[in-house]
Write a structure and sequence with these properties.
Shape: globular
Structural class: alpha/beta
Helix content: 25-40%
CATH architecture of the largest domain: 3-Layer(aba) Sandwich
CATH superfamily of the largest domain: P-loop containing nucleotide triphosphate hydrolases
Bound molecules: adenosine-5'-triphosphate
Largest sheet: 6 strands, mixed
Number of strands: 17
Number of helices: 17
């Protein structure tokens, strides 16, 4: 879909920003460009929508040499999201989102309907947020509007330059999750610039690790973590790359244990057969939990159930699971099908977390013979969560 052929960019002052870049991004693939400041990531990205022209080499979009496409026409095929979102302050969220469809000459009602649909898709209720102005939004919400606006005209390609760089780590992780969910629905071809290796690993189908002006390794996240191609890459991904694996390994249904379950309207069972049971409502959605002591009291489950605080949707990362356990001082966390419905699937315990991690390592060890992973530190942290 996007192909670089021996592309170089030299600025007039003699700086070589990128040198002899050749790589290809497949249709529907999300490639993260990661590397230290000044290594040429932004230059690479801006050459795709012709905000910067290469000094030599060629770039193809869907087989077409982009130097032959009118830049304005080209940019209509490419959504662009940057860190300082660049929303128009005097326009509402809905108007901001509808900007490109307007420019394309869509009818006002069609453009607004499309904008509302997109806002919904990025998790902003259009009736609540559509009429607000950018200054009335949080940083994370503004970034979501930026993503919605870039998607509004349904371009096949998205360029994203540190889109979540300006928000705090918790919001950032949330936005990353939402973006992954969104990408699984819209399947755009995405080039995503970041200098955060964890973000690159979490989001990328493949990662391009930049050294100074060139790509040192272009590979799947597990391969970059497991078998860094050069000492530079090994240094960049860090000595704790075994732990980084936590953030790329999702919780799967098969990882979960099935504890005893009671329902809100049940009478107290007295004997749980366990130290605790999960409490569900009439639709089998997660409500909370009941201790063995609670079960011995008089009354209904509803009266003695406690609300569940430590829970996550399936597909969340093992890292999120681990940090949720620590945050709530919990020996296990409940896992639901998705945030909206809350249907209970099972619980993840530290032992199961450890097994899931081993599964991921073993799978890669088969695919990549030289995988080395810091199993000892993984064992230490899962032990810490158990105690
Ligand atoms: N207009 C310009 N004139 C001269 N040099 C430039 C120009 N724009 C960028 N550079 C240089 O080109 C190199 C690559 O810059 P680029 O912005 O692509 O890096 P980056 O990897 O995106 O960095 P960052 O993470 O800090 O945004 C840097 O050394 C930068 O100083």
């Amino acid at each position: 879909m996007i192909r670089f052929e021996h592309v170089a960019k030299r600025y007039p002052d003699g700086t070589t920003a990128v040198d002899d870049l050749s790589f290809e991004v497949a249709e529907g693939e999300l490639v993260t460009l990661v590397g230290p400041s000044g290594c040429g990531k932004t230059t690479t990205m801006k050459m795709v929508n012709r905000l910067i022209e290469p000094s030599s080499g060629r770039i193809f979009l869907d087989g077409e040499d982009i130097s032959t496409i009118d830049p304005v026409q080209l940019r209509r095929r490419i959504g662009y999201v940057i860190q300082q979102v660049g929303l128009f302050p005097h326009k509402t969220v809905l108007e901001n989102t509808a900007t490109v469809p307007h420019l394309l000459g869509w009818q006002r009602s069609k453009a607004r309907a499309r904008a509302a649909e997109l806002l919904d898709l990025v998790g902003l209720d259009p009736t609540t947020y559509g009429g607000r102005y950018p200054e009335q939004l949080s940083g994370g919400q503004r970034q979501r509007v930026g993503v919605a606006r870039a998607l509004a005209a349904d371009p096949p390609v998205l360029l994203m330059d540190e889109p979540f760089g300006a928000v705090d780590p918790v919001v950032r992780e949330h936005l990353q999750n939402e973006f992954l969910r969104l990408q699984s629905q819209v399947r755009k071809t995405v080039l995503f610039v970041t200098h955060d290796i964890e973000e690159a690993v979490r989001l990328g189908d493949r990662i391009a690790v930049y050294g100074q002006g060139r790509i040192e390794q272009f590979d799947a996240p597990a391969a970059v973590l497991g078998t860094p191609a050069t000492p530079y890459v090994a240094d960049f991904v860090g000595a704790d790359r075994g732990l980084k694996r936590l953030s790329v390994t999702p919780i799967e249904e098969g990882d979960l244990e099935q504890p005893p379950v009671v329902h809100l309207d049940d009478t107290l069972p007295r004997e749980l057969g366990s130290r605790w049971a999960v409490v569900l409502d009439g639709d089998d959605n997660l409500h909370g939990w009941l201790s063995a002591e609670g079960a011995l009291r008089k009354g209904s489950v509803r009266e003695h159930a406690r609300r569940m605080e430590a829970w996550l949707p399936v597909g969340a990362s093992l890292k999120q699971a681990f940090s949720t356990m620590l945050q709530h001082d919990a020996g296990w966390i409940a896992v639901i099908d998705k945030e909206e419905t809350g249907r209970f699937l099972g619980v993840l315990t530290p032992a199961r977390l450890h097994e899931a991690l081993r599964r991921s390592i073993d799978a890669d060890a088969q695919a990549i013979p030289r995988t080395e992973v810091d199993l000892e530190s993984i064992a230490t942290i899962t032990e810490a969560a158990k105690s």
